[in-house]
Structure formats: C-alpha cells, structure tokens
Amino acid sequence: MSASLPSNFLLGFATASYQIEGAVDEDGRGKSIWDTYCHLEPTRTKGANGDVACDHYHRFEEDLDLLQRYGAQAYRFSISWSRVIPKGGRDDPLNEAGISFYNRLIDGLIARGITPWVTLYHWDLPQELHDRYGGWLDVQESQADFERYARVCYERFGDRVRKWITFNEPWIQSIFSSEGDSSTEPWIAGHAQIMSHARAVAAYNRDFKPRQGGQIGISLNGDFFEPWDSEDPLDAEAAERRMQFHIGWFANPIFLKQDYPACMRQQLESRLPKFTEADFALFQEAESDFYGMNYYTSQYARHRTGAPSKDDYLGSVEELQWNKQGRSAGEASGLHWLLSCPEMFRKHLTRVYKLYGKPIYITENGCPCPGEDNMMREESVKDDYRCRYFADHLDAIGRSTREDGAVVKGYFAWSLMDNLEWSDGYGPRFGVTFTDYETLERTPKNSALLLKNMVKVRCQSVQ
Ligand code: NOJ
C-alpha cells in the first residue's frame, strides 16, 4: 500500500543554469567560475564543459513543452548571475539581453500554467568577482554584491516570480571550492553565503514581499546518518554530529537565528567565524518561508578517536555505506555515492521538520539508474529503477507527513533532463528526459510520464 501525500502536493522538475543552458558567449553573458574551471588543463571535469550543455538557451520553448507534457505544476531553474550582471558587482552594468532571456523563460512558464521557482545562485559565481576579491572568501564584499544582484532579480522578475531560493547547497560550494588553506576557507565561504542569504531575504521581506507577496527560502543538502554500531552511544553522537556539521552549519543561523552548532564551535574553535550583534539583528529581519531540501542518499557514521585533523569538515566521523552488521544503507544506483534509502529519508524529513519548524519542499531528488551512463537512448528511457526510486521516496514523504507530523509541501525531481553533472561530466544521467549530446534531441523516459500519476494516485488516497 502506498502512503498518501498531503492534498495540494506540488510536483515540479528542477535544473540549474550552467548545467543546461550553454550559449556561454552569447548576448553579453560574462564568464563564471565554472567556465574557467571546465577549461582547466588537465581537465577536472572528465573533459566536459558547459559551452553547449543541453543548449537550453536556444531550446527552452521545447523544454517548457516537455514540462507541460509531464504535468509539472512548477519548474525550478537558476539564474546565471553573469548573464544578468556580466561582471557581477554592485556598481557594474546590467545586461538587458540576459534579463530578456529570463523574461521569456518566465513568461513561457506562466503561459503554460507552470509556476516558476527561481534559484538565485547555483554555484556559477561571476569570474570577475573571484578575480576582484576571491568571491566567497570576502565576507563583506560578496554579501553587498549578492544583495544587489538579488534586488535586480526581484525588481525585474518579481512581478511574476513568487518563489525564490537564494542559494543551492552552500555546503558544496564551501567545502569543494577551497583553493588555499582548507582549514579555514570552507568556514569563511560558508559564513559569506549565510550572510548573503540573510541580506537577500531581509531585502525581499522589507522592500518586495509587501507588494509582490512571494516566498523565499534556501536549498540545503545533507544525507541522513544512522550510527554504524546501533549499540554504541559514541556512534549515535557521531551520526548526529555529522548532520550538524552538514545541515546545522547553515540551518542554525538561518532558521533558528542562532550561532553555529556547539559541536562545530568545539572542534573548529577560532577557525569558525563569529556572528556579531548586528548579524543576529539582521537574522531577525531575514525570516525564511520554507526549507528547500535536496536529498539523494543516506549513510552510516562511525566515531573517530583522537584529535581531528585541521582540515576535517565531517565532524570527526567516518562515513560508511554499510553498518556494523554489514547491512547496506540501500540499493545501489548508477553512482557510487548514491544508494536508495527511502526509510532513512523518512527519518530525515521528520528530523529536519522537528528541528527547524519550516514547511519543507523537496527541491531535488533523483538518481541515475544502474549502468545508465553506458546506455543508448532505447535502453535509458526504460528507467524502471528511477520509477521505483521516485515511488519509494514519495511513499517516505507520505509516511513522514501522515505518521510523523512533518510538513512537506512539494517535490521537484532532479532533473528535467540529463545534463552536465559538474566534475563528473556528461556520464551520470539524472534526467527524466534523455539528452542525446550529439544531436541535442530530447526523449522522455518512462519516469517523466509516470511521475505525475504517482503523485496523483497518492494525493487521491487521502480523500
Ligand atoms: C545537487 C546539485 O544541486 C545538482 O546541481 C546536481 O546535479 C545534483 N545534486 C546531482 O548530483
């Protein structure tokens, strides 16, 4: 028996600018740090880059038709900062051609009855801001520039966009973009994104929300962790600590308006930046409306003994995919780090809701099927594994909301189409649409056509 979903449960699909748009040199777009990174020698991205990607910039009408065909009620996409402000800074000129692209996209969605959900920042920082002051390593400069960029978006798109996500997975951006001292840089970059989020939300709440009436939040990632040895209290602590280091890092200041988790202060000491009284006052004005959750997998945590190294960012735990009894956390997908663990997803939802008390939207969830990176189109579209993954995760949402009291209001499948999986290049296929990277032809996979019904059936079983 599948568990029922809340009525009015929202179904959408998600993407991000650099992963799909292409057209990197067109219509005045400035470079982003991902343009640079993808062209480094030797390659850090398996030879792949986003120069063309899915060519969504030129094919967006076709992609919007797909969304409509899939029964999407909402579409989550991100704006490329350097298309809107090529150099990115608060005194730099706007690029009207870039703004016009997003206007056409937004209008196209609305014409099809699909609600736009806009992410302001999905990792593609304007290269110029990196060159000027090191991007997120300058807490003051970056938040001033981000606030201005956010204000431009509210001004130019906010008459039609009523759902805003400030940052996508600031954890990834902080941990994986350290270039120098990895014992301090992640914590500074995280601090800068928290403050930038707060500035952008406060600006929205004060100057736009009263007129535009929208909502704003952030998308945080983070696996659920269970103790490796369920009998060992130290592993239980390690599992909780691991989640505090991942989620609490951002959620404590953003949703609880509190300092970083105590376990982080204890381990990182003065390497963790401090919030001032003025920062806490800003948090009071920066109430977020929802918790955006990107969720893919779960793991086991085993405590480490001895002092953690200076570049430990996990909270002194070992992350494992099996527990002490050798039980795997879940069924293997097409990527080594992604096991399907719906039972732990249910616990995760319940824990996050209890801790942070905001309605949850799943802003990403999905997987590549086993072996899909080597499949031709005919095989890839028969994506039974993905269908099962979606169904199991929707069931987990149903159980968490019906039985555990969590509030989960919607679900965005990652992703609308196969696209550039960052450092993994074009190998992993997360899409519900098959992308042929030679011809750029799109073909719906079975999951794309079935997902709508999966949600509908589960919503109906409530009545
Ligand atoms: C998280 C990121 O937000 C997205 O860009 C990425 O493609 C998916 N997870 C899958 O790894």
Estimated radius of gyration:
21 Å
Largest sheet: 8 strands, parallel, barrel
- Which topology does CATH recognise? TIM Barrel
Q: Provide the structure class.
A: alpha/beta
**Low-pLDDT residue spans:** none
Number of strands: 15
Can you say what the CATH homologous superfamily is? Glycosidases
Strand order, sheet with most strands:
1-2-3-4-5-7-12-13
Number of helices: 17
- Rounded mean pLDDT is 97
Shape: globular
- Cα separation of the termini: 15 Å
Architecture in CATH? Answer: Alpha-Beta Barrel
Ligands present: 1-deoxynojirimycin
Topology:
Elements lengths: L9 E5 L2 H4 L12 H6 L17 H14 L4 E5 L2 H4 L11 H16 L3 E7 L5 H7 L5 H19 L5 E6 L1 H7 L8 H23 L1 H4 L2 E6 L3 E4 L5 H24 L5 H7 L8 H9 L4 E5 L3 E6 L13 E4 L10 E2 L6 E2 L1 H15 L3 E5 L12 H4 L3 H20 L4 E7 L18 E3 L6 E3 L1 H15 L3
Account of the 3D structure:
Keywords: Glycosidase, Hydrolase. Plays an important role in cellulose degradation. Shows hydrolytic activity against several glycosidic compounds. It catalyses: Hydrolysis of terminal, non-reducing beta-D-glucosyl residues with release of beta-D-glucose. It is an enzyme of class 3 (hydrolase). It holds the Pfam family Glyco_hydro_1. With 463 residues, the chain is α/β, with parallel strands linked by helices. It has a single domain (10-460), classed as Glycosidases (TIM Barrel, Alpha-Beta Barrel). 43% of the residues lie in helices and 15% in strands. The chain is built from 17 helices and 15 strands. The chain has helices at residues 17-20, 33-38, 56-69, 81-84, 96-111, 127-133, 139-157, 170-176, 185-207, 209-212, 233-256, 262-268, 277-285, 342-356, 377-380, 384-403, 446-460, and strands at residues 10-14, 74-78, 115-121, 163-168, 215-220, 224-227, 290-294, 298-303, 317-320, 331-332, 339-340, 360-364, 408-414, 433-435, 442-444. The chain has an 8-stranded parallel barrel, surrounded by 5 helices. Helix 3 (56-69) runs parallel beside helix 5 (96-111), helix 7 (139-157) packs parallel to helix 9 (185-207) and helix 14 runs parallel beside helix 16. The radius of gyration is 21 Å and the shape is globular. 1-deoxynojirimycin is lined by residues 16, 19, 168-169, 294, 364, 414, 421, 430.
